[in-house]
Each structure stands twice: as structure tokens, then as C-alpha cells.
């Protein structure tokens, strides 16, 4: 408590930066100073490190897979399946 009184502005600056400060009396927590209400879940997640910003680069454009040389086309595969049913 004595230290809190002497360094109140330092502790408040830490809270403004997003930290939580526990206030102890005789080694027992009697209070907690937390950032003001209004912090969004996203802001809290970024501050606490369990949420990260997305990569700013755009995703690579989608390119369909090309069949391996000599592989049957989908039409050929369907023809084989139809022929087996008869």
C-alpha cells in the first residue's frame, strides 16, 4: 500500500498500457486495478497475446490442380464407372 501511494502515477501508467496491477496488504491481495471498461475482446486478446493480427499480405490466388501426365480424365473415369454398372 505504501509503495502504491508513493508510485501511483507509475502504476496508473502501467494500467493505461493494459496491465493489471494487484494491490497487496501484508502479502494478501486486497484490490486489483484493471484497465477501464470499454476494452473490446479483440483488444484484450491482442494485449494478452492469445489473439494475433492477420498477415497483411493478400492470400495467393487459387489455382486448380493439373492432372498428372497420362492420368485419365474425369470423363474417362465416369465412363468406366457407368460401364461397370451395366
Order of helices and strands: HHEEHH
For the largest sheet, list the strands in their spatial order: 1-2
Strand percent estimate: 5-15%
Counting helices, strands and paired strands, the structural category is: alpha+beta
Cα gyration radius (Å): 31 Å
- The N- to C-terminal Cα distance equals 88 Å
Major β-sheet profile: 2 strands, antiparallel
Spatial shape:
rod-shaped
Estimate the mean pLDDT confidence.
87
Question: What's the number of extended β-strand segments?
Answer: 2
- Helix share of residues? 25-40%
Low-confidence stretches: none
Query: Helical segment tally?
Result: 4
Describe the structure in your own words:
A two-stranded antiparallel ribbon has the order 1-2. It contains four helices and two strands; from the N terminus they run ααββαα. The protein is 40% helix and 13% strand. The chain has 86 residues and is of the alpha+beta class. The N and C termini lie far apart (88 Å). The radius of gyration is 31 Å and the shape is rod-shaped. It has helices spanning 2-6, 8-16, 41-48, 74-85; strands spanning 21-25, 28-33.
List the helices and strands and how they pair.
Blueprint: H1 2-6, H2 8-16, E1 21-25, E2 28-33, H3 41-48, H4 74-85
Amino acid at each position: 500500500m505504501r509503495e502504491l501511494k508513493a508510485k501511483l502515477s507509475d502504476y496508473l501508467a502501467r494500467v493505461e498500457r493494459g496491465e493489471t496491477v494487484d494491490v497487496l496488504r501484508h502479502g494478501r491481495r486486497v484490490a486489483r486495478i484493471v484497465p477501464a471498461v470499454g476494452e473490446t475482446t479483440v483488444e484484450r486478446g491482442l494485449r494478452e497475446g492469445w489473439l494475433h493480427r492477420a498477415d497483411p499480405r493478400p492470400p495467393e490466388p487459387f489455382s486448380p490442380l493439373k492432372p498428372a501426365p497420362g492420368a485419365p480424365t474425369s470423363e474417362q473415369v465416369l465412363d468406366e464407372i457407368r460401364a461397370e454398372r451395366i
